[in-house]
């Protein structure tokens, strides 16, 4: 019995520490820091600027329901801006229909987004956010169309469309 217990403990301890390492990033999920000090707003300041739905996406890295955004079907020419700080993130000529139910783009405006790896679904994914205010936008995948081969899968609630 004792031997059994100690063997179990022997297996359990390394397993626990591996799990700890894997799950650690889940605790640092809070949205990314702004690059500009004037956009390092407090929670309350963000809450007063944003709708509760947009706050959940932009500041808590939430995800809206697929096919819930009108921007999914937006086909006019224009600019998609960050709903948090109005920084232009995507041009309409880089938008395409990915069939996923989220506005999708194959290339952002250069320098407008930054990425980090998140583990929300355990499997690592590449999160991207507005490079100015740090607001979460979506995730980028490697199954997009040429020439980039990237799919920037964006929450419509994190964007503001400004037609030309
Ligand atoms: Zn922003």
The gyration radius over C-alpha positions equals 19 Å
Main pleated sheet? 6 strands, antiparallel
Quaternary class: single chain
- What form results from the Cα inertia axes? globular
Using DSSP, what is the number of strands? 9
The main sheet orders its strands as 3-4-8-7-6-5
In the predicted model, the low-confidence regions spanning at least 5 consecutive residues are: 24-28
Number of helices: 3
What structural class should be given to the helix and strand makeup? alpha+beta
Q: Any chance you could write out the topology, listing elements then pairs?
A:
Layout: H1 2-23, H2 43-49, H3 52-60, E1 78-82, E2 88-91, E3 95-96, E4 104-105, E5 113-121, E6 123-130, E7 136-141, E8 151-154, E9 159-163
Antiparallel strand pairs: 1-2, 1-9, 3-4, 4-8, 5-6, 6-7, 7-8
Bound molecules: zinc ion.
């Amino acid at each position: 019995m004792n031997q059994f217990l100690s063997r179990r403990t022997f297996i359990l301890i390394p397993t626990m520490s591996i799990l700890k390492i894997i799950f650690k990033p889940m605790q640092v999920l809070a949205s990314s820091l702004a690059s500009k000090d004037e956009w390092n707003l407090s929670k309350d300041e963000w809450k007063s600027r944003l709708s509760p739905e947009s706050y959940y996406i932009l500041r808590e890295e939430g995800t809206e329901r697929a096919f819930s955004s009108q921007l999914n079907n937006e086909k006019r020419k224009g600019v998609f801006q960050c709903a948090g700080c109005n920084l232009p993130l995507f041009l309409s000529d880089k938008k395409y229909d990915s069939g996923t139910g989220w506005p999708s783009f194959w290339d952002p405006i250069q320098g407008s987004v930054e990425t980090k790896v998140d583990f929300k679904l355990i499997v690592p994914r590449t999160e991207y956010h507005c490079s100015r205010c740090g607001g979460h936008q979506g995730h980028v995948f490697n199954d997009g169309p040429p020439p980039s081969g990237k799919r920037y899968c964006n929450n419509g609630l994190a964007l503001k469309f400004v037609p030309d």
